[in-house]
Amino acid sequence: MSTIDRLASVATDHPAIVVAVMLVLTGVFGAGLADVEESSSISGLSGDSPAREAYDEVEQRFSDQGSNTTVTMVAVRNDTGNALSRGSLLSTLRYQRSLHQNRTLNRTLAGDQATASVANVVARAAVAAERERTLPDPVLTDWTDSERTDIDASENASARPEPPTLDEQITQLESMNASQVSTVVERVLDPDRSSPGKRAALRLLPQSYEPGSTTADTHLVVVVQETGGDVAVEVALPERVTDGQVAARELAKDRSDGQQYYLYSGGLMSGQQSTAISDSLAILGPLALLFVLVVLSIAYRDPVDIVLGLLGIGVVLAWTMGLMGWLGIAFGQTMIAVPILLIGLSVDYALHVVMRYREERADEAASPATAMRRSLVGVGPALALVTATTAIGFLANLTSQMGDIRMFGVVSAIGILATLCVFGLLVPALKVGVDSLLARVGLDRRPSSLGSNETVSGLLRGGASAATRAPVAVLVLVALVTAGGAVGATQVDIATPETSFMADDPPAWTEDLPEAVQPSEYFLKENRRFIYGNFQTPDKQGYVYVEGNVTSAAVLDDVTRATDVAESSDAVLTGPDGDPVVVTPVTAMRTAASQNDSFNATFHAADTDGNGVPDRNVASVYDAFYETTPRLAARTLHRSDDGTYDGLLVRIAVNGNLDRDAAVAPLYGAAETMEDADGVSVIATGSPVTSKNLNDGLATTVIESLTLTLGVVLVLLTVIFHVREGAASLGLVTLLPIFCSVTWLLGTMWLLSIPIGLTTALVGSISVGLGVDYAIHVSERFAEEFEGETDSETALQRTSTGTGSALFSSAMTTAAGFGVLSFALLPALRQFGIVLAIGIVYSFVASVYVQPSLLELWSRYRSETTLPAKATPSASDD
C-alpha cells in the first residue's frame, strides 16, 4: 500500500481523529497570528550590493548632518501666485516657527536651524543690512546644498555674530513693507552679484525660476530630523520621527494663511503605506470572499460543500499567517497578495477533491468513505506533485536580490504545504463525516459535477476534439502565437517607480462603501508629483566615490578629467549659472580660494604648472581647506580621526526624468575615467545607480527564477512520470503548454504596457508553479484513463469533461481571486493581480486546449513503440 493509500485510509476510516488533530494544529499555528507585525517598508537590493554599501558609506562620511538624519520636503505655493512676496515669506517663517514649537516634532529636530527656506535667506539678508555685515548661511541639508559654494570670507569663525532666530527674522520682515522686502529679494537673487545664501536660495526655488526674478510660483522648506541611528530605508524610520512628520503636516493643514503646503517624507510614506495595506485588505477581503462564494456556488451547487470549502480556506490562512508570526516574518505590501493566492489554491485543491468524489459517488454502491478514499487515491498523486512543483515555483524566488520577493516565496511555499494538509486530510475527513451523518438520517446526497452540464462539457471537449482530428495543425498555430509572445516578452519594460507603492486617490465608488471600510485620504502621491516636478530632488544626485590614497596629485588630475567627462553629458543638470552641476574637491577648493586670500595663496603655491590643480603638498592643501571652510571640505573630502585623508567624493546632479541607463551614464563615465588610478578604488553610486541596480536585479530575478523553476519542474516531472507511468517523456509533454502560457503572458504584459517591477517580477515563476498544476492534473487523468484498453480519443474526452470541469471551476475562481487585486489602492498590487489573473486563464487554455494535442501525439508514439497491443487512435490527423 502506497503512502497516499495509507493517508487516504486514515482520513476516511478515522475522520474524527483526523479532524481533532488538525484543529489542535490550527490552534497552535493560529496562536502566532497575534505576533504578525505589519511592515510598510519595501526592501530593495541586498545589503551586500557594492553600490548600496558605497552609498551608505557616502551618507555617513560626506553628509553635513551625517547618515543619522532624515529630510522632510515642504513645497509652499502662495494663492497670490508669488511665493517670494512679503506675505508668503512671513507665512513660511511662521510655519517654520510652529514646527520648532511643536513638542512632538521639536524633540527630533537636528538643532535650532533644522528648518531652512528662501524666507530664511531673505530675512537674514534683511537683518544683515541692519547690522551692516553678512551673516552665515542657514543650515541646509546634505542634498539641498550639494552644489554650495557660498562661503563666508571671514577667517575668524569665532567673530561671526549669532544667526538671527526665527522670531528675529519674523520681526524684521514684519517691520518692512512689501516694496522693501522685494528689494531685499532682488539683491539676494541678483545673478550679477555674490551674496550670502544666494546659491542655497536658488536650490530651494523651482526649476522654472528665472534668474534675477523677484517672483516664483513656489519654493521649498527643508526640515531635518535626527533618527538616532542608521536607517536602512526611509520608510523604516523610528516612530518618534514619523510622529514628528505627521505633526508637521497637521500644522500645515491647520493653517489659513493663503498658502498651500505639499509635504513629502519617509515617515509620511510609511504611514500611508500602512494605511493602504489596511484599507486594501478591508476592501479586498470581502470582495475575494464574495467572488469565491459565487464561483463555489456555481461549481458546487451544494451548501455543505460551500461551507466546507470556506472553512478549509480559513484554516489555510490561519496556518500560514500564524506561522508568519511564529517565524517573525512581517506582513508587508507584497504579502497582501498571499491571502488571495492561497484562496485560489485552496479552491483549486478543493474542487479537484470534491469533483472526483462526486464522480465516485455516482456509483450507487459507494459509501461516502469509499468514494472519498477512491477520490484521494485518484487525485492524491497529482495533488502531491502539484504541491511540489508549485512550492518550487515559489521558492525559486529565493534567487532574487530583493528581500521582499524572497520572503514572498517562502510564505507562499508554506501556504501551499498548508493547503495540501488541509484539503488532503481535514476537508476530506469532514466531508466523510458530514455525508455519512446525513446518509444515516436519510439524506444520501449525490450532487452532480459541473462537467455534466452540456454547455460546459461541450466547451471543455473542444480541445480534445481538435486534438484527435488535427493535432499538428493545432500545435503549429500555437507555435506561431507563442513565437509572437516571445518577441513581445523581450520588449517588456523593467521598472519599479517609487509611486507604484504609493496609494492612489480612492475611486469614486468607494464613497458608497460603509463608513467603517471607506479608504482614508491619500495625498502623498500628488505631493510627490508636485515636488519632484518642480525641484531638484535627492534621487537626481549621483556620486563617484574614491577611496584610498586621495592625497596623490595624480588622483586629483583624474578627478579633473572625470569632471570634464561628466560635464560633457547632456544627462547632467545645469545650475542657475548655466554650468553643469558637478562638485569635486578641486572645484570646491577653487571656489574657496576665490573668496579667501590666505587659502588662495596656499592653493596656488601647490599648483606649480598653473592648471588649477594642486600637484604638490596635497595633504597640506587639504588641511588648509578644512581649516578655512570645514563644512565645504567635509562634503568632498573625508578626514579620518588620525588626520589622514582616505576618501573623496565627486557629486554629479543628473536628470532624474531620463531613463535609468541615460541617467547613470555620466556617473559610470566619470568612474571609468578614474578606475586605473593607483592606490584608490573607484565606484559610481547614489540613488540613480542603486535604482538602476534594483531594476537590473529584477531582470535577473525573472530570468533566474523562471529558468530555475522550469528546469527543476521538468526534472521532477520527468522522474515522477518515469516512476509512475514508465514514460519520462510525459514530463516534457506536461511542461510544454505551461511554457507557452508564460510566454503568452509576458507578451501580453508588453501589449498592456505593464512593466516588470518588484511585484510583477514574481509572475514568471508563479505562473509556472500555478499553471503546471492544471497540466499535471490533465496528464495524470489522461494516463489513468489510457492505462486500460481505452483509445486516446475516449481518454481525452473523459479527461476534458472530468478533470477539465474541475480545472474550469478552479481557473475561474483563482483568476477572479487575483482579479480582486485590481481593486487594491496600490498600483503595484493592481498590476500584480491583473497579470496573474491573465496568467491563470492562459494556463487553463493551454492545459485544456493545447495539451490534448500534445497528449494525442504522445499517445500515438507510445502506442507504436511501447504498447503495440494498445488500441490505436480512432481519428487521423487530417
Written description of the protein model:
- It is a single chain.
- The chain folds into three domains: 3-35 and 271-451 and 464-489 and 727-865, Multidrug efflux transporter AcrB transmembrane fold; 67-264, no CATH class; 537-686, no CATH class.
- It has helices at 3-13, 15-30, 50-62, 86-101, 103-106, 118-131, 166-174, 178-188, 198-203, 239-253, 266-300, 303-327, 337-361, 368-395, 403-440, 454-469, 471-489, 524-534, 553-567, 585-595, 597-605, 618-628, 630-636, 660-674, 687-725, 729-751, 763-786, 792-819, 827-865, and strands at 69-78, 115-116, 218-226, 259-264, 541-548, 582-583, 637-639, 645-653, 680-686.
- Helix content is 61%, strand content 6%.
- Mean pLDDT is 82; it is low at 133-159, 231-235 and 867-878.
- The protein is α+β, with helices and mostly antiparallel strands.
- It has 29 helices and nine strands.
- It is elongated.
- Strands 5, 6, 7, 8 and 9 form a five-stranded antiparallel β-sheet that branches. Strands 2-3-1-4 form a four-stranded antiparallel β-sheet.
- Keywords: Cell membrane, Membrane, Transmembrane, Transmembrane helix.
- InterPro entries: MMPL_dom, Mycobact_MmpL, SSD.
- Residues 307-433, 730-857 form the SSD domain.
- Its main location: membrane.
- Residues 139-166 are annotated as: Disordered.
DSSP helix fraction = 55-70%
Average pLDDT for all residues: 82
Radius of gyration: 34 Å
Instruction: Supply the CATH class of the largest domain.
Output: Mainly Alpha
CATH architecture of the largest domain: Up-down Bundle
Number of domains: 3
Describe the global form.
Answer: elongated
Low-confidence stretches: 133-159, 231-235, 867-878
Task: Return the structural class.
Answer: alpha+beta
Percentage of residues in strands: 5-15%
In CATH, the topology of the largest domain is named Multidrug efflux transporter AcrB transmembrane fold
Q: What's the number of helices?
A: 29
